[in-house]
Predict the structure of ATP-binding cassette subfamily C protein CydD.
Amino acid sequence: MTALSSSDLASTDPTPRARRQWLKTIAQGGRRGDAAAAWLMLDSVAAIGFAGGLAGAIVAVPAGAAAVLPWVMLVVLSGGLRGLVVMLATRRGARQAENAKVTLRRRIVASALHRDPGAPTTTGVLMAAVVDEVDALDGYIARFLPARKAGAIAPFLILLATALASPVAAGILVVTLIPFIVAMALAGGAAAEKSRRQFTALARLTGRFADRVRALPVVLAFGAEDREAHALGIAADELAARTMGVLRVAFLSSGALEFFAALSVALVAVYCGFNLLHLLPFPVPEQLDLGRAFFVLALAPEFYAPMRRLAAAYHDKQAAETAADRLIALPAPASPMPASLPATPHALRPDMPVLPALAFRSVAIRYPGAERCAVSDLMFDVPPGRIVVLTGPSGSGKTSALHLLLGLAPLVAGDVLIDGERLPPGGSLAPSASWAGQHPLIIAGTIRENLRLACPDATDDAIDRAVVQAGLRPMLMARGGGRMAAGLDTRLDARGGGLSGGERRRLALARAMLKPAPILLLDEPTAHLDALSEIALVTTIVAACRGRTTLIATHSDRLVGIADHVVRLGDPA
Ligand SMILES: Nc1ncnc2c1ncn2[C@@H]1O[C@H](COP(=O)(O)OP(=O)(O)OP(=O)(O)O)[C@@H](O)[C@H]1O
């Protein structure tokens, strides 16, 4: 499978050539790209056999059943072969499309996970990309590409067979082909623009809907339901109008195709009939017999069959090109995680179990597009096994400093050292760090599943210990009707519905304690807790920090009190 570079998703405003190249690379992600087209070409060969069998059988009728039988067998075999090759072509095309889509979806997910901090791409845009836009490539790879390849050769096979039986009938087919191609080119040009607009409307609706669903509590809190519903209604109407436009062009082009296909068959039929009856009003250089006439007539509809197939898949091409423009414009992963051990500092490798020391050396962080640095000239050490607390006013860069260690904030100057070894650009300590963020991530699922995010192999005993240490026992007992195990099976939605803010923080802390990592990073772990709960949680945090190198960002004086060293970040300028 062809490897795709991150730049495959990175460029903006692609030229037609760049778009073609991108689609080609994606399509080749599936194996044996030409197999489906080869099967379709074989269908035309079988069609010639089928027509030959029919013509032979008709001619052989006066000679009796024994003479007819071989021709009938040819008809049956060719007919069976046609069914088989079309099935194989469909299966091969579908498999190729599936492979390509899986590859592309992996890349988009990687792009979403490692997108530039502060990138404008919203979750809705990414969802539209990973679902609708990738799906739009399906018909292009499964149907259009094989049909286009077969369409470039198969009609000429039919034309050649027809010409061998009747050059004049072959001439009729060629003559009807020219206006057909002109009509299809005109319809195709109109369809391209309409399809592009339809797809943009679809992506806008999907993205907007997904983003608003995510922000539903905010929408409800500000009473903006009507406004948002109205905006969604406008987007849906726009999509409906664009879809009707696309359908109109599709009907027009299929009407043109059917007209010329019927015209060519009718002309060939009239010609063959009049030729057989010697009634043609003009001289022709051939005299047909029944067999040749029947053969040509049976073959005439097959001349347009590959083009019919191509026309049926033409909308897939338009949709894929529009989707490609949007997919190409997606941001490339800004700072890929270190993919392999060489990018991981030695101090964090499993064969070096000692607790690591962290050091910030003249560190500056600046987000893309920001006028000033979020953090500049930051210098401090976190000795092995010690607790360092970052404190300072809101916006002074505490979270950014922690995010830098996880590859989530961009370093523009200075170095982060782990046991004296430089963290590579865009590198992350995530594999060796436990993390409890300011806004704990909750996934839709049980509390147990949320805990296992940090450590998928955690035993039930380890989970029980972590939740008890984090002070979640009373809540779990209440939820589980007196049984903690049942409480752990309580389902949460993706917003942590059913948990208070403090419980969410405790859950995040339990998760951090569950992961046996030598580094602990905590961002505002006691925010929004009352004094008693904070005191209880500080005790838990002290236990969690034991045997780990810990960095805590906080405004809390109680947490400052447990620090071995305090770093005060300055006021934001
Ligand atoms: N993803 C981002 N893109 C652009 N700017 C950002 C981003 N994240 C943070 N900033 C900016 O960086 C500065 C530092 O923010 P940060 O969240 O690190 O501060 P903080 O000290 O943790 O604040 P708080 O105590 O309120 O959590 C702020 O000016 C903030 O607006």
Notes: The pocket of adenosine-5'-triphosphate is lined by residues 117-118, 367, 370, 374, 394-400, 438, 553, 572 (CB under 6 Å). The two ends are 51 Å apart (CA to CA). The chain is about 60% helix and 10% strand. Residues 1-11, 335-347 have pLDDT under 50 and may be disordered.
